[in-house]
C-alpha cells in the first residue's frame, strides 16, 4: 500500500533507531530523537523496535491511507482527527481504507511519532531507514516530507475505525530519581569550568535556533577554567559543547562525528529522549550525576520498556477493540 502526503507538516521525517557503526567514517547516527516514544509506538502496533516511524516536529502532516492500517501516536500529545473524530495518543487505532488522518499541533512537547504496523518500507541506506537531514540521504531522499509524496507501507488493520480501550501512560519513562521532565542527568566533561557548579546552577532555556543537530541553550555565558588549544575530537549525541559565546550546545542525533569545541558534559543515555521534547523557550536543567547513576537510570528504563512490552502483548491478545463513533469516547485504562 502507499500513504499519500496531502500536507507535509513543519518537519516530518522517516526515522528508526539510527545508523550505527559508521562514525569512524564520518557518518552520523540520525534516527529518532525520542527513542522511547519510537519504541513504544512500534510495540503498540506489533513491530520490532527497529521499524521506521514518522517523526513529527511541532506541527503534523495530513495523510491519506489507501488501505486499512493500524497506527499508534506517541511522544508529545498531538491533535489527531479522522472524519471529524478525535483520536487518542499512546493507544492503538485501526483506520479503514481511504481514511484521511489530520495531525495538528504538538501540545506538551516538541515531537510526536506515528508508528504503522509493518513500518515504512523504504530502502535502507547503510543499514538504516533513518533520514539524515545534514547528509541528505536515508528515509525519503534524505529530506522531510513534501506534499504529493507517497510512503510505501504494508500495514495491517481490520478495515474499520476502531481504538483499543486501553492506553500507555505518556509519562511512564519518568524516573523516580529525576521526576522533573525539564531535568536531564549530565556526567562531567573533559573540560572544566571556571565556576564548577555553573552548568547545574543555571536555569537554561532552549533557543529557537535549535534543531535535530543540537539544542542551543540560552542563559548567562559560561567560562572555562583554562584556555587551551584543542584539536577536533569525537563527539556523540548527548555531548555538551561550549562554543566561543559561552552558551552550551547539547548535541542530538544528527550531530557531527567530530568537533573542536570544549566538552563540558555528557547527557546520560537514559535522558536523551527528554531532550527531544524540549520546545523553543522551554526550561532545561542539567543535573550532575555519576557513571553509576547513569547506568542505573538506563537499567530502570530498559526494565520499564520490557514490562510495557509484555503488558501490550497481553492486551492485544485478550482485549477487544471498540468502535469509534461521533460523540463517543473509548473507555481508557492502563494495560
Task: Write structural notes for this entry.
This is Biotin-dependent carboxyltransferase family protein. InterPro entries: CT_A_B, Cyclophilin-like_dom_sf, PxpC. By secondary structure, the chain is α+β, with helices and mostly antiparallel strands. It has 2 domains: 2-166 and 319-323, no CATH class; 183-293, Cyclophilin (Beta Barrel), CATH 2.40.100. Helices cover 14% and strands 27% of the residues. It is built from 4 helices and 22 strands. The protein has helices at 35-45, 198-201, 272-276, 291-318, and strands at residues 2-7, 11-15, 53-57, 62-65, 69-75, 78-82, 85-86, 93-95, 100-106, 111-116, 150-152, 162-163, 183-188, 204-206, 214-218, 233-234, 239-241, 249-251, 258-259, 263-267, 283-288, 322-323. It has a 7-stranded antiparallel beta sheet, with helices on one face. The chain has a 7-stranded mixed beta barrel with strand order 13-20-17-18-15-14-21. The chain has a 6-stranded antiparallel beta sheet with strand order 7-6-9-4-1-11, with no helix packed on it. Strand 14 and strand 15 form a beta hairpin. Helix 1 (35-45) runs parallel beside helix 4 (291-318). The longest helix is centred in the last third of the chain and has 28 residues, at 291-318. It starts with a strand and ends in a 12-residue tail after the last strand. The model is unreliable at 325-335 (pLDDT under 50).
Amino acid at each position: 500500500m502507499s500513504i499519500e502526503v496531502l500536507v507535509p507538516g513543519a518537519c516530518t521525517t522517516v526515522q528508526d533507531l539510527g545508523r550505527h557503526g559508521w562514525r569512524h567514517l564520518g557518518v552520523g547516527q540520525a534516527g529518532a530523537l525520542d527513542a522511547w516514544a519510537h519504541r513504544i509506538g512500534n510495540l503498540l502496533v506489533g513491530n520490532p523496535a527497529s521499524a521506521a516511524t514518522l517523526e513529527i516536529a511541532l506541527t503534523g502532516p495530513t495523510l491519506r491511507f489507501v488501505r486499512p492500517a493500524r497506527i499508534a501516536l506517541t511522544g508529545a500529545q498531538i491533535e489527531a482527527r479522522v472524519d471529524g473524530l478525535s483520536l487518542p495518543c499512546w493507544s492503538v487505532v485501526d483506520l479503514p481504507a481511504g481514511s484521511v488522518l489530520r495531525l495538528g499541533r504538538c501540545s506538551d512537547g516538541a515531537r510526536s511519532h506515528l508508528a504503522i504496523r509493518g513500518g515504512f518500507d523504504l530502502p535502507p541506506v547503510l543499514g538504516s531507514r533513518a533520514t539524515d537531514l545534514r547528509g541528505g540521504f536515508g528515509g525519503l531522499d534524505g529530506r522531510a516530507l513534501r506534499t504529493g509524496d507517497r510512503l510505501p507501507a504494508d500495514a495491517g488493520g481490520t478495515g474499520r475505525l476502531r481504538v483499543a480501550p486501553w492506553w500507555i501512560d505518556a509519562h511512564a519513562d519518568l524516573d523516580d530519581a529525576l521526576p522533573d521532565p525539564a531535568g536531564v542527568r549530565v556526567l562531567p566533561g573533559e573540560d572544566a569550568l571556571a565556576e564548577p557548579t555553573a552548568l547545574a546552577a543555571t536555569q537554561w532555556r532552549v533557543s529557537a535556533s535549535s534543531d535535530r543537530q543540537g539544542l542551543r541553550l540560552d542563559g548567562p555565558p559560561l567560562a572555562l577554567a583554562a584556555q587551551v588549544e584543542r584539536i577536533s575530537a569525537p563527539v556523540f549525541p548527548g555531548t555538551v559543547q561550549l562554543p566561543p559565546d559561552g552558551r552550551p550546545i547539547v548535541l542530538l542525533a544528527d550531530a557531527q562525528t567530530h568537533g573542536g569545541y570544549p566538552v563540558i558534559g555528557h547527557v546520560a543515555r537514559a535522558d536523551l529522549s527528554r531532550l527531544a521534547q524540549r520546545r523553543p523557550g522551554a526550561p532545561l536543567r542539567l543535573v550532575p550525576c555519576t557513571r553509576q547513576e547513569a547506568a542505573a537510570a538506563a537499567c530502570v528504563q530498559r526494565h520499564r520498556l520490557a514490562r510495557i512490552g509484555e503488558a501490550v502483548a497481553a492486551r492485544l491478545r485478550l482485549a477487544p477493540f471498540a468502535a469509534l463513533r461521533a460523540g463517543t469516547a473509548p473507555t481508557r485504562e492502563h494495560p
